[in-house]
Structures are given as structure tokens and as C-alpha cells.
Amino acid sequence: MKKNRTLEDAIAAIPSGATVMVGGFGNPGTPFSLINELVRQGQTQLTLIKNDANEPHHGISRLIENGQVDRLVTTHIGLNKTVIELMNQGKIDVQFHPQGMLAEKIRTAGSGSYGFLTDIGLESEITQQKDVLEWQGQTYKVEMALTADYALIHAAQADWLGNLLYQGSAINFSPLMAMAADHVIVETIDLKQPGHFKPEHIHTPGAFVDSVVELKALTDDYGILDHHVRR
Amino acid sequence: MSVVERILTRAVLEITQGSIVNLGIGLPTQVLHYLPDDFDAQIHSENGILGAWKQSAPENMDPFLIDSAGAYVSLREGASLFDSAVSFAIIRRARLDLTMIGAFEVDAQGNLANWKIPGKFSPGIGGAMELAQKTKRLVVLTTHTDKQGRPKILEHCRLPLTAKACTDRIISDLAVIDVTPEGLMVREKLVDISNDELQDKTEAKLMFTAEE
């Protein structure tokens, strides 16, 4: 079945109040075009799950600055002073996880399981006593799986069956989120016919993907950020 | 030589040939640029790279390839790219030989605080907790005192901890100090400073080797 959708139709499926996973670690992997369309359409009361908050006026920071996001589940927002300020003012609820724990919670959900045991952060203020259990003489923290209604994913290449390939450090959370969300919306600049890619090179099989949006061009959002270039 | 250059110049000597190394955000990421171009080490970046290397010239820079601090990097021959779950599996399975990491405070027991100053700074812990807790050898890079001249090497950390008893060695702009079961042992001085002067700038009790 062809999964091609227009940008507008793909994003219009997301209702206000939805929980949305967004791929990307910093710029690479951030689906800017899908996010910018969500800004344009204006859905509100969103819960976003993303490694970081991008940088001010960029990526999901636009959704947050626009008042569309009630809650952000993340690992580190140190590169976004604007979102830190909104958090400190109480305008957005931010929940932090250690980065590998966030990845593993999403991976666990994507594998159809419900939680896992870990020794990460057992003695940290991040860990609450209610999450700790004894099992066969050892102490563990219970981490629950993390699901979402939607995932927004940037793929370097895709076919219209929803088979996906990523590039560079843009892989990061994307294949995990593509497995963990109920509805997966993908953007790509390079959409091919099924059969174009070698089957063993595909990162995410099309079974996890619901909609594929073909981008006409990559906007400036995807380009080099000058302040991360070493002088 | 600036304070930062002194720390980085000494830090680079910690990396052994053939090792797998993570360089934390801040001072440690800059260590990469002090490594000789033919140095045999694989740099891990927690956003999904094993084999990251120095930034390319602007015309060859890849906008889809950054380190965990957001800086553009290149790849060495033999590099691999993977998702965040795999990246942290490498960390939690203790496949990193060395992590260098920054600090707000580090103490005589090797406890590390580097992620939160309650009421002032709380951008999230990122990958620091797992790196500190699980890396085979953790070397802290830090200025010896903060901008107000207050010691950062303490008897007991006061800020929320990143991880307990995780630090093996501290490299400051003044000295190289090992965390031992008996306490902090000064191994090298990086400037001309007396034992008493160094102790004055350090809250934790220091031990000095016999020949000092």
C-alpha cells in the first residue's frame, strides 16, 4: 500500500492533546518540515518527547515558544536558553531522564515490552523510592516503557512502503521512536520506488511506518549552524 | 599557556593507543583537537558515533554529523554509526576504556557533581550519569577553583551527584590528583606551586608522594 501523504494531510491527523515523539539529537534527524507544519496548523496541549529542545526559534523550540506544548520529556536542554527560561517561569512542564534511560524506555516500548530493571541512577535524586525494587538479593530501579500517539521522523531516504534509511548522526532516536509510537509520520527528501534499496540496508522496516511525506527541498533549517563551526 | 591549554595538554596524555574514549561536553570535547592526526583511538560520541574525528574544512562539513555538544565532526576510517539505544549499550556494557568529563564539584571519595545547581542551573543530566557510573576509567577535567576562587575539589560534594565514587583521576590547571582508597593523592604538579599553596586552594585533604 502506498503510504505517501501530503505534508498538510499527514500533520492534520495529529489532534490537540496528542503525545508526539520527535526524532533528532540537536539538528541532525530533527524533522523540521513536519514540525514547521505543526506550528502552522496550531495543534495545542501537546506532550513532546525529544532528546533536546533544539535551539531557540528552531525545530521544536518553535512549537514550545508558540505555546503549543504543555509538557516536554527530554534529557538535556542546555543549548536552548529560551526553553530553560519558559521552564523556570512554569510555562512548560519539563521532565528529564538520563539520556540512555530515555532511549531504552523508548526501545522497550518499541519492542512491545513494558519496562526494565536498571542500576543507573539508583543513588541519585532523579530516582524516587517508589521506583526501586529488590529482586533475588539485588536492588534495581524499575523503568517503564515510554510510548506515544505519534512519531515525527526524518529519514535520509525512504520508499513508499515506508522502508527507511538514516544518515550520519541523524539516526539517534529515530529508529527507536518509529517502533514505539502508534502512528509514524516520516519526511524524506529522497523517496524511491520499492526495490530501490538493498533489503539488508534498510534501518526501519516499513511495517512501523504509516505516512511518508516527500519534501521538495531541504530548507535552511537543515543546514550548517555557524556557531557550531570551529574557528 | 592559558589555564585551559594547560588542562588539555595534560589531558591528552591520558589517552592510550587503541582505546575507546568518550569526551564529555565542555573542556573534554576540546581534547580531540590536541590529539596527533595519526593517533590510534576511537572517539565515542553518545549521539551515536564510534570513530568521530576532528572537524572537516567548511566545504566538506556534513550538516548531519555532529558530536554530542553539537559541533560538526568527521569520521575516521572504520567508524560506525548507530542509534541511541546501541550507543548507551556501549556505555552501560562498560566498553568505553576512558571518559573525560567536566565538573562543578568533585570530592575525596571520587563523587562527582556536574549537572545541576539547584535554583540556578538545571538543563538536564544528558548522558553524564551513565558515562560517570559505567566507564572503566573516569578522568575529571576541571579548573582547580571556580571563578570566585573557591575550591572545586571538596571533602564532600554539596551539589546533587551525577554518580557516586566514580572518579579515578582529577586533572586541574594546577595538578594531577588520583582518587585512592586513602584519599586524594597528588601525582604531578602542572605549575610551580608548593604543597601548602596547593592545599590552600583545595578543600579536601591532599596527600603528597614521598619525594615531594
Automatic annotation (TrEMBL), chain A:
The lineage of its organism: Bacteria, Pseudomonadati, Pseudomonadota, Gammaproteobacteria, Oceanospirillales. It comes from Reinekea blandensis MED297. The keyword Amino-acid biosynthesis does not apply. This is Acetate CoA-transferase. The keyword Transferase applies. Keywords: Transferase. It comes from the Bacteria. GO terms for molecular function: CoA-transferase activity. InterPro entries: 3-oxoacid_CoA-transf_A, CoA_trans_fam_I, NagB/RpiA_transferase-like.
UniProtKB/TrEMBL annotation, chain B:
Pfam families: CoA_trans. The keyword Acetylation does not apply. The keyword Transferase applies. InterPro entries: 3-oxoacid_CoA-transf_B, CoA_trans_fam_I, NagB/RpiA_transferase-like. One of its GO terms (molecular function) is CoA-transferase activity. It comes from the Bacteria. Keywords: Transferase. Belongs to the 3-oxoacid CoA-transferase subunit B family. PANTHER family: ACETATE COA-TRANSFERASE SUBUNIT ALPHA, KETOACID-COENZYME A TRANSFERASE. This is Putative 3-oxoadipate CoA-transferase subunit B. It comes from Reinekea blandensis MED297.
